[in-house]
Amino acid sequence: MTELTAEVVIAGAGPTGLMLANELALAGVDTVVLERMHERTGLSKALNLQPRTAEVLDLRGLLGRAEDRSFATVADGHFAVIPVSYAGWNTRHPYQLGIPQAEVEAALEERLAEQGVKVRRGYELTTFTQDANGVTVTAGDLRIRAQYLVGCDGGRSTVRKALNMPFEGIEGQGHGVAADVRFTKTPPGAPTEWRSMTNMVTSQAPGKFIGVIPLAEPNLYRISFGDRLNRPPNLRAEVTPDEVRTAVAERFGPEAEIAEIRWASRFSDDSRLAANYKVGRVLLAGDAAHTHFPAGGQGLNLGIQDAMNLGWKLAATIHNQAPAGLLETYESERRPVAQQVLDNVAAQNALIPTNPNQLALRALFRDLTAIPEVQHHLSGMVSGLNIKYATEDPHPAAGTRLPDFPLPQGHASTLFHKGNWVLLTKTPVPPPHTAVLVAQVPELPWPDVEKVLVRPDGYVANTTGVWPS
Ligand SMILES: Cc1cc2nc3c(=O)[nH]c(=O)nc-3n(C[C@H](O)[C@H](O)[C@H](O)COP(=O)(O)OP(=O)(O)OC[C@H]3O[C@@H](n4cnc5c(N)ncnc54)[C@H](O)[C@@H]3O)c2cc1C
């Protein structure tokens, strides 16, 4: 048995674990990242970054890497596959970036390695214990003593199960299959570029859906299909080539010839949320804390934003620089965000019609989305741009994201690259704390505001500039 010490152990090197590891490395926290798989699978799973996630990556100078690995810029988002525009939001990134999950992970792992942290692959966390001073984690021949453990180990989280954490929600009735399929030639009527969500998903029969998204290689498509009313007895059963062929034939006709099914996996429409995100010195983030049907393209985005919220709080706690109760705000801020996503996913599921009444409801709902305020509301939800955390400051800007506005040189986002707090002020003021970077600016996004204190994750702490106690 090899004994190690660390300040934090992260179980799982998916997008959530890798983002969190980057945040902790930036703050100088000694972190061990355990990943049970020997290699990244390369499966694409999630295909998009939402506007708020693009902003979050930009705050750390990571967006360029994701853009370099992306294959599409998608002008809109969607709610129940009804396109919704991000145009009404004050953001520099009013679009989805089309990028396979494996590429997001590769970009994050590359930056992590540059920060001197290597993911320990082939190490599966099997057990842990915790006491008042720390946690002891066992993974293969490693035993690690650390101050905190974060379970970023996905929907079937070992960490969550070991905590006996209730993971409740809606038990769905249906299921879906996602498969990356290469055709011998472009199937009839299939799009060749992913520019919008319009007509990306169609329905051949009540409750059934099939989505077709062109990927980076010629004739390679993400085919997602499913049935809202039926699920196979075993949701973990392998997807058979015949299932994929049948769905493809229903969508494109018999002449669509499949050259290769690169991978296929099944997903459920269950929605579940952990009762708590923190138990003593053990925390949960990403799919370990919440899982849902991938409607609207939100899961990976939620996980990366969990990590962005948790990283600086955990680092400040470890460095004894945190105001009392700061780490507890990770749950009080992020759990309601996940609940909102689960609720909007449930509403999206209900809008996949299974009978004529629901068909009429969907048509009516589609009409309503033509109203700009409705578009704004829906796109704010799926993008994460509408998030507002509770603060004591009554100003409407407090608790919202700082829009990335232009400065005489560059943009405000560049001030956050080191993961620090930022005080933006129109008049000279001393820093309220040594950890704060003060930047004098000619204008702020809110005309009536003289100064804003912004947290490392880009949310406005207050408009008074006073360090939170
Ligand atoms: C078909 C499909 C399509 C999707 N499409 C989208 C989309 O378009 N947009 C979107 O935002 N989201 C989408 N999602 C959801 C998205 O894939 C997940 O939300 C995302 O993977 C969550 O990231 P994570 O890091 O929290 O968990 P995971 O990606 O599950 O990563 C967990 C990691 O932990 C490792 N691990 C597990 N147990 C242990 C252990 N005991 N010890 C060490 N390591 C362990 C695993 O090997 C894995 O690498 C989709 C999901 C599916 C299934």
TrEMBL record:
Residue span, FAD-binding domain: 6-344
Top-level division of the source organism's lineage: Bacteria
GO molecular function: FAD binding; oxidoreductase activity, acting on paired donors, with incorporation or reduction of molecular oxygen, NAD(P)H as one donor, and incorporation of one atom of oxygen
Pfam families in the cross-refs: FAD_binding_3 (PF01494)
Entries under SUPFAM superfamilies matching the protein: FAD/NAD(P)-binding domain
Coiled coil: none
Necessary cofactors: FAD
Flavoprotein among keywords: yes
Protein name in the entry: FAD-dependent oxidoreductase
Organism from which the protein derives: Amycolatopsis vancoresmycina DSM 44592
